[in-house]
Amino acid sequence: MGSKRSMLTNGLGDALSQSVAECNRVFDLFTGSGAVAWHVAQKYDREVIASDLQSYAVALAAGVIERTESIADHRWVDTWFDSARAMQPDSFFQEATVLQEKLEIDQISASAIDAQELCADVNLPVCFAYGGYYFSPLQALWLDTLRITLPNNANQRRIGLASLIIAASQSAAAPGHTAQPFKPNETAGRFLREAWMRDIQFLVKRAVISVSEKCARKAGRAVVADANELAKQVGEGDLVFLDPPYSGVHYSRFYHVLETIAVGKVGEISGIGRYPSPSDRPRSDYSLRTKSKLVFEGLLKVISEKGASGIVTFPAGEASNGMSGQDVTEISERHFSILERKVSSRFSTLGGDKIHRDARQVTEELILILSPR
């Protein structure tokens, strides 16, 4: 997860450049962080269609690919912040501010209990589900109220939501994803305090400035959709970028906090990670060992029959969802002429614990360029 941004300067960017020059539209069917969709939309005069099962990923992609003009005037951000502050209950704001100012590492356990109790009865999704866990009460309050008061202007709203998700990911008290928060103990307490002290307003405004200067050369669209279903809309001459899941655990388990912010609501929660019910989280056949190869084969079959070309990235070795780089290559060869490259990359193991495996590992990653026969 997250390796595509670095891969764009390590082989993937060149592969895209060669392929985009000859294509009509570009489909990014597992857009994730939106890095590839942003890259293509900014550099090439092509419509980019980005999709994912998770709304947070689609919101990130939409923040750039659905706009064709950069925005240099950021005065609307202060108006947005003022609207959010106006709807914050004063008593909660004051208590949350006092708690924030008194955060000390040697008192972090007691502070966490106070924070959780403060947020427990608040009828705001981020406060209720994650306040005192992934976020301090003050951070959670800002995330909730900024989500509720997103601007009505379409482009400002796209930028605002993408920036809110970015800020949440940069401030969450968790080790790189949100499967579970740092514990308020002697070992992880300092990391929890460090995360809770991050200024949401600063992070949001910084993200707004970064996102708003980016735009697409041609308007695209971002949609929540199943990759295999959306592939039916691919046409001859299109280019399809595929970075399918490699984890045997559904990705929604690791990004449910960002998903809550994207959709603005949360259902029943449970467990150490404060997870929504599995029925409320997107599930993908690509994360099932019994189905991953079948659905990938079905996807490539449709793309091939449509006369489109493609680029596939996948770890070169064995992945926990039952697929390997060799499987991906063999399946691709059944439907396309392929050009294979391997590059060095770092990827997340989605739950490394430094005992059984590190959280991030150096690996070889495949880049397969697929051409119609």
Topology, please?
Layout (H helix, E strand, L loop, with lengths): L2 H5 L4 H9 L4 E4 L6 H9 L3 E6 L2 H11 L9 H12 L3 H12 L6 H12 L5 H6 L6 H12 L5 H18 L17 H8 L3 H13 L8 E4 L2 H4 L8 E4 L13 H8 L5 E2 L4 E2 L15 H14 L3 E7 L9 H9 L3 E12 L11 E12 L2
Parallel strand pairs: 1-2, 1-4, 2-3, 4-7
Antiparallel strand pairs: 5-6, 7-9, 8-9
Distinctive features:
about 375 residues; alpha/beta; seven-stranded mixed beta sheet; two-stranded antiparallel ribbon
User: What share of the residues does DSSP label as strand, in percent?
Assistant: 5-15%
Radius of gyration: 21 Å
Which sequence of strands runs across the widest sheet? 3-2-1-4-7-9-8
Major pleated sheet: 7 strands, mixed
Low-confidence sequence ranges: none
Helical fraction = 40-55%
- The count of helical stretches stands at 16
Give the averaged pLDDT, no decimals. Answer: 93
Give the SSE string.
Answer: HHEHEHHHHHHHHHEHEHEEHEHEE
Provide the structure class. Answer: alpha/beta
- Gross morphology is globular
The N- to C-terminal Cα distance equals: 31 Å
Quick one: how many beta strands? 9
Describe the structure.
- With 373 residues, this protein is α/β, with parallel strands linked by helices.
- Helix content is 43%, strand content 14%.
- The chain is built from 16 helices and nine strands.
- The chain has helices at 3-7, 12-20, 35-43, 55-65, 75-86, 90-101, 108-119, 125-130, 137-148, 154-171, 189-196, 200-212, 227-230, 256-263, 292-305, 325-333; strands at 25-28, 47-52, 221-224, 239-242, 269-270, 275-276, 309-315, 337-348, 360-371.
- A hairpin with a 4-residue loop joins strand 5 (269-270) and strand 6.
- It is globular.
- The model has no long low-confidence stretch (mean pLDDT 93).
